[in-house]
Amino acid sequence: MARVIPSTFSLYNSNASSFIHPPFSILITSPFYSTNPRFQCNATKKPSFVDQILDYIEDVEDARDAILVTDGDSDIGQMVILSLIVKRAKVKALVKDRRAALEAFGTYVESLSGDANDKAAIKKALTGVRAVICPNEGFLSKVGSLKGVQHVILLSQLSVYKGADGIQALMTSNARKLAEEDESTLMALGVPYTIIRVGSLLNSPGGTQGFSFQEGVAAKGSLSKEDASFICVEALESIPDAGLIIEVANGEEKVSDWKQFFAELMEKQCKTQ
Fold first, then answer.
1. What are the angstrom distances between the C-alpha of 24 and each of 1, 86, 90, 160, 195?
2. Mean pLDDT, range 132-136, rounded to an integer
3. Reported pTM
4. Residue 195 · residue 246 · CB < 8 Å
């Protein structure tokens, strides 16, 4: 049953354990891959037929047209997915509860059960993927190779964790370690990346404020989760030659053309290097 796309993006569900059910229906077709498996001799263990098919598809660059969202059942993960659906992107999501994801997103998203510790699930999730959006820390430091991926976008709260003190620093010590490992791993992978260092993330409506991109703003400022997910999606098509790191919090600056905004940032970075 078709429904109308809402005019605002106020789709946040305060219950973090449940999925946001998008009140709309969009037709997204899934391409059919016709492949001829390649067989290899292996003295120890012969690869399964499914593994050979996956390996073949992985090598076909033209088949890479999907966006993978890691931690797809988190608040921001769901918001990123909804934004991608609205843009009619082909979406894959790595989730903990596949049944809940199917109920929430239906056939608009290829939901895959697993996490960063599940190597088989990771390999399957990355098949046919051209870009990866990581809305939370803890994935990249464990994933290993991202061969064939053209762009990785990491939403990082490292600046917030570094600025914490007292009991707050103790409570976020593990998250800080994961964020540091994710950033350092991503920089060493050799895949074009965009690291979006954000201020403290809030459950407030997005699209109601401007932004600040000043150095140091992430450690002191805050950002709506909806705005954070929106920026991740807008960064997708602006692929840097190597890497781009930006800081952002809600502020006064308005951005009317995000493609131009990211292009200017990359040009500015090239001049300073």
1. 9, 9, 16, 35, 31
2. 96
3. 0.77
4. yes
